Amino acid sequence: MNRPLNALRGTAATATAVFLAALLAAPAAQAAPGTRTLYAAPDGRGASCTAGRPCTPQGARDLARTEQGRDVRVLLKDGTYRLDAPLQLGPDDSGTTWSAAPGAHPVLSGGQDITGWHRDADGTWSARVPAGTTPRQLFVDGRRATRARGEACPASTCDATATAMTGATATGIDHWQRPTDAEAVIRVRWRNYHCRIAGVSGDTMTFVQPCWTNSASGTDRTGPAWDSTAVDSTRYSGVAFFENAPELLDQPGEFTWDSKTRTVTYLPRKGEDMRRARTVTPHTEQLLVIDGAHDVTVSGIGFAYAAYRQPGTDEGYAGMQAGLTLTGATGPVDHAGRYYTKPSAAVTVRGGRQVRIDSGRFSHLGGAGAILEAGTKDSALTRSSFTDLSSGAVYVGDTEPMPQASLAGERNTVAYNTISRSGVEYTDSVGIWAGYEAGLSIDHNSLDHLPYSAISVGWGWNQPEAQKSVLRDNKVTANRITDVMEVAQQQHDGGAIYTQGAQPGTVLSGNYINRSAYGNTERDGNGIYLDEQSSHITVERNVITRIGYKWVSNWADYGIRNTARGNWTDTAAPALGGAGSVMTDNLTGLDRLPAEALAVAARAGARGGPVEQLRTDLARTGTATQSSTDGTATAALALDADTNTDTRTLSEAGAWWQADLGAVRRVRQVEIWNDASATTADFDVVTDDGTVHVSGKALRPTLVNLDSRTRTVRIVSSGTGRVALSQVLVHP
Hints:
Elements: H1 5-25, E1 36-40, H2 57-64, E2 72-76, E3 80-82, E4 87-89, E5 96-100, E6 107-109, E7 111-113, E8 118-119, E9 125-128, E10 139-140, E11 143-144, E12 146-147, E13 153-154, E14 165-166, H3 168-171, E15 183-188, E16 191-201, E17 204-207, H4 211-215, E18 238-239, E19 241-243, E20 254-258, E21 263-266, E22 279-282, E23 288-291, E24 294-299, E25 302-304, E26 317-321, E27 324-325, E28 345-350, E29 353-358, E30 361-365, E31 368-373, E32 380-382, E33 385-389, E34 394-396, E35 409-410, E36 413-415, E37 418-420, E38 432-434, E39 437-438, E40 441-443, E41 446-448, E42 455-457, E43 475-477, E44 480-484, E45 495-499, E46 502-509, E47 512-516, E48 526-530, E49 535-540, E50 543-547, E51 552-553, E52 563-565, E53 568-569, E54 582-584, H5 595-603, E55 623-626, E56 647-648, E57 656-674, E58 681-687, E59 690-697, E60 702-717, E61 724-731
């Protein structure tokens, strides 16, 4: 029987508070009696591991293993530790603490310096790359460069099939010097594909295998049978861009890699001097691996320039969801994602018990930040920062719905972390991903500027093999999520918080979500997305504003017994789907957040923070009219504080919609939410003081700045199309 919600919330909050209090009280600089302290340094050598004669990290580990029955802590002195292989800790390293020495900021780095730059005749700079290194990412003085890329190629030109693609002639690829170094980057709904060109024959391009086959629909391994997001599906709209060809190198900050001459070529940004710049490419895949150890603490250590090699191989990057890929030429038939592959990460914990990673700094990574997997239990990742990552920041758990007990992820914590600009290269990845976990706490994290969903918990898409799982009692609480599902990255059908699967006892509470898919061209991007079989989940006391589509979505009739109550939001949403699902006591359609909501939002995140208050809507009490009405889509539906309902005129010359404010008011801005199913485009915003023209499609929303004293605001089509709107707000 489920406990009352308040009891659940209290238990979760108490457990997290006790856990974090114990973690914060753990010794960082002062050793407990009987503790042996060893020292490591970037230039360490020998075997004494003293403060005056430090060892390498591997040497300190080996010496620590001889200290039977004693607590050992290893202090890392300041500097960069260049690793050709990961530091590996196993069962023999249980009970050890690895931390920064007082005042130090050590960094474990997988980077390879690129030196010997020379200027080319065309203004680019080139350098030879050491054998064994393949630059997929390049960082110049700590700033990420971009692989040279071209323009989008629509499906009408770059027509993809299960075996090949047209368009080599129209794009000029048939005349490229080395097209087989170039890749096609394709985004289809929530998926991202990167496959290298294998050959060009006339207008036809083929791609390396198994990348292309795994990106197409014929494998019976790419996911649910209803899936329509493969490269050869009807949802494919074209190539986002081709990248890594010298013919595309035309913007400062871009680079290319020539595999034949082993040369990297770069076009510097303004102010960059390649004779003096430090240029680094990720080379070593993993930096720290903790496998089968218990009671290990890692604190105050940085992790940078770790590589992710798979996308550069013939496997490529056949993205399925959330940064997981389909790999291998063959494999079990599966529709629930049980055999997908997680990205490589700087830190990996496998089968850990009470492993704590605290105050880490994860940056400039070619893959993911940290993975806790293979039955890791009672472990935590806390107070760490993640920025500028090619893939996702944190992955917890696995994709097997009913694992054996030793491989089940249980009672893990991800708390008080900051995640910004992850998914830079693999835009289908998420900030924090959790598979089949039980008792997981994702608490007080700050996540911003992410291309797709921010937090994802659960797996399986209601497929038969995934309908029963170990998912239960997970808590996603007091997180701050802003500017996610970024429209420019073209990833769709996600949410700031995304769930799958039946999860009895799971609670999503106290989160502040602002601007998810804000400014989209279609109805897309949810606040909290209870997708597919998401069931038995409580959504309570969240503040959710400026969302591209629904503030809460529970569309499937097999997603049952979900509850949304006591939330604050500026729009409404359709009723929750599924038997026993209810919405109650939510404050919707707000144009000002009340004090209680502001307090909840301000407390959310790793350190709390400001809250973007809603803006008064002068049109809320106005009267709407329109030139004509299509069916039941009346003018008043654009003033009902619900961006999910729509007005529509007929298609006619000069079609218009108007709001009468009831009196002359001073207007600074009009906020126009398009009805994406019947796009409004090329229109005028007319007030008593004048007219402002808007070219192209209206967005969700389009913001039109004014300085007008007016009683009416009219939106008028410039041509013969419809005026179709979800919402119009007029701000003083």
